Known about the structure:
The chain is mainly α. It has helices spanning 39-46, 71-74, 90-101, 106-119, 140-152, 170-182, and strands spanning 61-62, 65-66, 75-78, 158-161.
Amino acid sequence: xxxxxxxxxxxxxxxxxxxxxxxxxxxxxxxxxxxxxxxxxxxxxxxxxxxxxxxxxxxxxxxxxxxxxxxxxxxxxxxxxxxxxxxxxxxxxxxxxxxxxxxxxxxxxxxxxxxxxxxxxxxxxxxxxxxxxxxxxxxxxxxxxxxxxxxxxxxxxxxxxxxxxxxxxxxxxxxxxxxxxxx
Length: 183
């Protein structure tokens, strides 16, 4: 009764300082740096996911204006860890995501999912179970493309993809980078 849980940071850690960036529409930008440098923190802040990133001092501008309240709806963030349901196929996973995030008729959502599957080169595995470490399903590269597709079904104006090629073999990484360039 009347209990409280208070968390206080033990050390103030400044990850990013005096940072100015400009992104041009249609441009593909890669952030590089050592582990712990703040790349994920920066991406989450840019994508409007500030509740995980601590205190942001300064301004984030979008088209020269303070970040609008609906920015998270205009942009998308693909986390570094795939958040997939192993018992579903890529088509089912993308369809489930579209049903949650896209205001459209079921037919329109199905068409959107089909277009994303084609765009990401997932046609050959669209009906294969995703699986997991213990129960092999689709490949790591295909998993990453499904994760990207989960955000593409929303047709965002801007995508932030964290560790888009980590853990992939060189061929899969090359395929994913090629997809980034075409988006």
